[in-house]
């Protein structure tokens, strides 16, 4: 409801700038008595961490998370949540503020420099300040906690398109995702992308991407129509990620091209005597409520605007200039968006699980 | 923040079922002293109203709106908002509950029947109850009020794709939109669609569509990063509309295929001495904050699942059945989604205008 | 979170002015499958209704409530909540707007006339508009629904002080409450008050009062520290009632005069083997969380400012005038505040019950 | 709206336990370009800090605050807010966890031990965990920021009653407040209280108190009726402070004893040609909206329940025990509640100032 928070019962508030002393989040409403160690959160942060391959920014950040509140070691010796706010902090260490001094007065095209100035009349130009993708570390940390709220929930993401190159879905292999630096589920595509992205990188250029996130283990019944629909809240959460320009649920924009006969998911009684769907065009959500099928969301990330080719722009003072971003940047920010997308979906599902439990017992 | 409300300072709560006595909304936080007549709201409701052509449901509803609170006639004889909640009510008149009796026990594939039952354990089966598109009348009414909050705001929508058929953007003509029953801005496409949709209708089938909404007159600086971004809130609002499966801002999913050089909008100093953008790939939003360019959003609507061809399904009791929806339905629900999309975008912009004014004075 | 709503999961939004066509509320988040008939709500409205004795305003309003949404008759023939928003409407019938025409330009001392004008620059002067105590009918209606959310909850209120006259607590008799027009639990005091208040009424004067509300059947564990404490939310809800100037929980202001030895409630193991408190100075709340003891709240209502004695004031135009309120008014608005206080406490407890169930399962 | 946050546009979320590594808050929605140095916040923390006299707990905490985000040094060399979340952190240093080991299994009467266990099934027993008054340091820090939001706002508090001993209001002297360890505005009472409280302290007992907070410089028009009334939100904020059992606005409970003639504040046109009130019984709020008069609130704090005299209680395991609290405690927690009350009132007024600016421009 406020500017830097999301969620209703599982509520996450993030804070911090790219080049401030630290960044973090406060998770309010996490159920009590859930085992939670810093290492579990760290594991997800490590996936998102920059500087792990030549395809992401060379900024080196350990992204070491500390749990400052909301847990205690129980009598069984296990650290658990207590139901009070969980404050997580990650210190910034590799800040190199001087890299950014020359863009202090210049609006980088495609970045939020101009709009932050238009809004606030003051702008933390160091590394993009609050608009930096570094903020997403806090999301990933929150997502690691969210994953533990709904027992049985598994949320996984993958890069399914880089520039014009899509994966071949018949080759989808979740295990492949962790074996290439792109979170790509298609091992063949991953090899081709390596060559393609290396070219982008060497040119000092950048390229967009599409990420798919699939949540399994979501029981039927989650979602709060009309204005807290599960797919709506997922769309909102994904669109809030830096550089995201589009979001789809299930077959998404393709649904516009289908007839009712093609699109509707038929039902039958399964072997276990319970209703089951024969397809999942809906992406696990009907009328804003989960159907019990996997929840499937995709989002498009634009190419980062930090490129070596000079682009026309203006200064705060109204002068026309050409801007060429040196700094350390991602040739494809979509790559590191994979764990961020997973985290956001996990947080939304955790929240809806608690909301449903509240209203419906 | 709760289930049936959206907005933070300009806050809309809707209520009502398809076949209850009435539906409506309460608008909380509308600024005072804005002239507001029921006729102004009615004009937008009339655009959305069913039964106006053979391409939308034949349900006949006058959709006459009453203003129950929040206005008074000022000393100048003009009815104005007072700053207190504006309650709007629309009575349901053409309900024909009997049409729906046979689907009381059956889950219509693609509809929210199964999920509402899974969530609530009770379901208003009459016309879809709360999940009916009739609820969108309340949104359109709220949008009519929202349009008056930010002076100079113009929000217009158009149908840009029906099934596989897209408009030719070079023929875009806003005046054409009101001259065909599809809100289509391309007069040539409109004629082709008439034939195409007539075929869909006669087959008792249905088809998806894509709607584009453009908001002009949005000043730079609106949007509340990180989790109340302008594009995020628009995505959320559009995804909350019945049957929507995808949302895009600016060039949307196409951005995934572009390089940084192609995608970034360059800037120059305009004739008026102020910064201007040379393109609008961003769709008027950078870093979640409006740039001063037109805000451009698109959303995909799936085909309605109410079709004459029998589909396999199950009953509440666990029996396998075939469902064939008779009732009165839209061959392309996307058509009537145009004024609804406009309304949602208008509400979000009004809210962000007030939020910005609050935080930034 | 917004201006005319309260509650987090059981959320109530009210609307309407004293002299508009109607007033009402929307209840969002009520659990599904709760039997709910309009008659049940009406019973509580009838308690609050004006014109029932010479000690309350002579305005005659049937205050007949209609349920416009959120319920349906289930297969067992019982009308039940469906989990969707419950819209309640009460039409205004006895409005006599002309009574108020002469105070259109005058600020009645002690009323909200001046401050509404200062805030909004426009003011519905007819009967106080939105600031009228008529709005509390919507609260009472919402409270009637709230009472059904937590099984076993009993919320009762009583007038415990009128002007300087307090009840004798040793004579407290809940059955007496319904046998006098003051909701007074002390039959002896009730008789004395009749004489006292008759004098006030004949003088065209008014007097303040204190109301006590007791909620029984509240399980230990409800309340959301730190900023959604149960007592905090009750204080907020009671202070939002027209004319309330003070709120206490448990022994309230008297606690300031006690030592730690006197004030702390000791504990022992009860006959049922469970912890029990030996006293209830805390009023059923410790650290913002219910203790399982009855929740006890009191609130002070100021005398209505509508009196026959002329008071010095000013007009909108800046002229000095004397104001004498004729209209139809309550010699002691505290009387009718009893069912309103009950309703607010019931709503807060229902909300916290659902919140607790959400976070803690 | 969530559990550990308050405010709508100026929104404060606090986190941290008494004996965790740190505590703090995140302030979301603070306007940009406000000069803000850590030293300014520190000055208010120093007022609240324990261990400054023998009348407060002897715990020694430097309570040194760090600003982790939301500010930057502007081109004029002054550190200013940027409009992004302000994260404040205070490390805990003097924790002595061993003091509390023996109450791990015992519920201290009057404390929140039993209710936290009832709610969460797990409890941070070290120093009261989240329910400790240490959390109020975060409130004071937030209040220091809030004071800078509304230009001209002055919020001051004073202790006006200790046990049965009230100040003589005719001796009220704001300068006296800082010259005694009780924040007492009556220099004569302050001396008497020193003797009285010394006795309480030596007995290992404790006593309650009443605090008064006065806010000057509040323009007419702030407050969001019906459920975000200014006095309602102040009542909520004050009741959320540890150990508070009652709240009053203006003449509070005394209003119950007054007639309409006595209580209403009359108005005249002042020397400056603007309306003015001839008295302030209302405490600066009418109909939930500020009147332009000073906002006056009072709240009652119960005696701390940590006393040397053994009290009967039970253990988690259901055993009956006697509890005698050793630790380091306040003979009168009301003293340190003075800066906390000021801070809460400042936060609420800042929030309402922004809300009013949002809705009313």
Describe the structure.
- The structure is a homotetramer of 361-residue chains.
- Chain A has a single domain (5-360), classed as Chorismate synthase, AroC fold.
- Chain A is 25% helix and 22% strand.
- The first copy, chain A, is built from 8 helices and 18 strands.
- In chain A, strands 1-2-3-7-4 form a 5-stranded antiparallel sheet, covered by helices on one side. A 5-stranded antiparallel sheet of chain A has the order 9-8-10-16-11. In chain A, strands 5-6 form a two-stranded antiparallel ribbon.
- Chains in contact: A-B, A-C, A-D, B-C, B-D, C-D.
- At the A-C interface, helix 8 of A face helix 8 of C.
- Strand 11 of chain C pairs antiparallel with strand 11 of chain D.
- Chains A, B, C, D: It comes from Stappia taiwanensis.
- Chains A, B, C, D: Homotetramer.
- Chains A, B, C, D: Its cofactor is FMNH2.
